[in-house]
């Protein structure tokens, strides 16, 4: 197609955490919590990166409306499920063993759920794209692009909520010792993108 419509968001959706700690005493309860939490983070980061790579690839070529619709629908669905799973991972890990642990957990779950809901809405919009009418298709894709403008703030809010766990002294060392929570090399596909039109 002749015209490319792409909105690359600032701030990646991959929720890697840069943590460092140098405490002396291990905390078994904190380590157990961090192990469950960081394992979920590692798995879902990989899932998020994969979905974002699909979105990136569809913006690079001259894809048909049918290909764009299929890719967007699948990727947005994956992203919604990944953020929902992250929220579920925080829930299953339980209340972190720190003061205000319940509050931190609740805040993180709420913000992750908000991102999941936004991607679910984008998936619904993508499913409704009219691939038979180029004008309607372009308008529908523009609506998706406009809606995606909400995502950087929501993703960053979720990142901040997750980072708050690592700011707690009782959790810092336990989290930084977990592979799933160590900062990874930034993926070139870390930022979601709307597809080409």
TrEMBL record:
Residues 105-132 form a coiled coil. Residues 186-197 have a biased composition (Low complexity). Keywords: Coiled coil. Residues 176-197 are annotated as: Disordered. This is Small secreted protein. The lineage of its organism: Bacteria, Bacillati, Actinomycetota, Actinomycetes, Kitasatosporales.
């Amino acid at each position: 197609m002749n015209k490319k419509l792409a909105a690359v968001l600032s701030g990646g959706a991959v929720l890697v955490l840069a943590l460092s700690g140098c405490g002396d005493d291990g905390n078994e309860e904190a380590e157990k919590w961090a192990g469950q939490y960081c394992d979920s983070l590692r798995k879902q980061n990989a899932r998020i990166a994969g979905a974002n790579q699909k979105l990136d690839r569809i913006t690079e070529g001259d894809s048909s409306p049918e290909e764009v619709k299929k890719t967007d629908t699948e990727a947005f669905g994956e992203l919604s499920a990944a953020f929902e799973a992250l929220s579920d991972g925080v829930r299953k890990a339980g209340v972190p063993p720190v003061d205000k642990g319940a509050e931190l957990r609740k805040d993180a779950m709420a913000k992750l759920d908000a991102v999941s809901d936004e991607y679910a809405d984008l998936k619904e919009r993508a499913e409704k794209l009219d691939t038979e009418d180029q004008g309607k298709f372009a308008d529908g894709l523009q609506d998706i692009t406009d809606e995606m403008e909400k995502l950087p703030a929501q993703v960053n809010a979720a990142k901040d909520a997750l980072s708050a766990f690592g700011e707690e002294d009782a959790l810092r060392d336990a989290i930084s010792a977990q592979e799933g929570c160590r900062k990874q090399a930034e993926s070139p596909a870390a930022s979601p993108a709307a597809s080409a039109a």
